[in-house]
Amino acid sequence: MAASTETETGAARLVGASAEGDDQAVEAALRPKDLSEFVGQEKVRQQLDLVLKAARQRGATADHVLLSGAPGLGKTTLSMIIAAEMGAPIRITSGPAIQHAGDLAAVLSSLQEGEILFLDEIHRMSRPAEEMLYMAMEDFRVDVIVGKGLGATAIPLELPPFTLVGATVRAGLLPPPLRDRFGFTAHMEFYDPAELQRVIHRSAGLLDVEIDPAGAAEIAGRSRGTPRIANRLLRRVRDYAQVRADGVITRAISEAALSVYEVDSRGLDRLDRAVLEALLKLFGGGPVGLSTLAVAVGEEHETVREVAEPFLVREGLLARTLRGRIATPAAWEHFGLAPPQQGGAAA
Ligand SMILES: Nc1ncnc2c1ncn2[C@@H]1O[C@H](COP(=O)(O)OP(=O)(O)OP(=O)(O)O)[C@@H](O)[C@H]1O
Known about the structure:
Elements: H1 23-30, H2 42-58, E1 65-68, H3 75-86, E2 90-94, H4 101-109, E3 116-120, H5 127-139, E4 141-146, E5 153-158, E6 163-168, H6 176-179, E7 184-187, H7 193-207, H8 213-221, H9 227-244, H10 251-260, H11 270-282, H12 290-297, H13 301-314, E8 318-321, E9 324-327, H14 329-334
Parallel strand pairs: 1-6, 1-7, 2-3, 3-6
Antiparallel strand pairs: 4-5, 8-9
Helix pairs in contact: 4-5, 7-8, 7-9, 8-10, 9-10, 11-12, 11-13, 12-13
Bound molecules: adenosine-5'-triphosphate.
């Protein structure tokens, strides 16, 4: 995941959006296999459906696809769906794994015709590899440099047509020459609660867990707009339902389970709440500097900035201003507190 994502600097979190612990194995089982099973992202689905159908009708390889969006929104899943819809094999690698142009040349030269190459975190590839990719994407050719200095020679290598599916947290992180070489760019949005509820019902079916609509809605509301988190919370609630109840997930069971795991009604966890509570109760809602806030909650300031704040800002609970961090009216309301009068103290 990118250096700026929520979870990189923090310990494993139940509400972290990156894949952690046993996620990978379970995710493989829960991944939708085709576009019709893929929940939400209507525009992306419709557009991609057209791109793929048209390529299939022409008997051609699909255009290169760039997927941007936060971790856990389904970029890897979508790349596998592209492969399935095109009836093509898929090769999965990531930007950090490609640090030399030679690493990329090795991957590219072993691709089969029509193969899908999924390059996760494409913005983290090295510069020389990136430059090699320009030519590979456009002309299906690379120049492999053999030797060094004056004796170096470029050996041209023809590649079979392939489809590159690049994934990144933000398309803006890519240099424009790379971005421009993608024929189709899709931005994945956070999911709304109704869509997450559908994800949860689908996953519960696959996991053979009984869940009622209110139980699914409760989990969806705490899943931070992210299917990966929804699936993870579902598994923890399933544990609770199995151990403490009759195995059926209802609203009451979801609420009780997620309070054991300290995930509140808006999906805030212990760290998020500690940051907001310090801001509200110790500093009257701010403004307060990041370092002071971090000391108050006993965390590194990177952890507060990278792990807690992105979600709090996205939720409109905290604002980063030039004078420091401030709590919004929604933050006061979430904690059931009254904001201080102008110039007065916190209630
Ligand atoms: N639209 C969706 N419908 C149903 N399940 C989904 C959807 N999107 C994601 N999921 C589920 O969420 C989990 C995470 O998805 P995925 O690994 O594709 O995310 P990602 O965007 O590639 O994340 P990362 O950037 O961290 O690699 C998977 O288990 C997948 O099954």
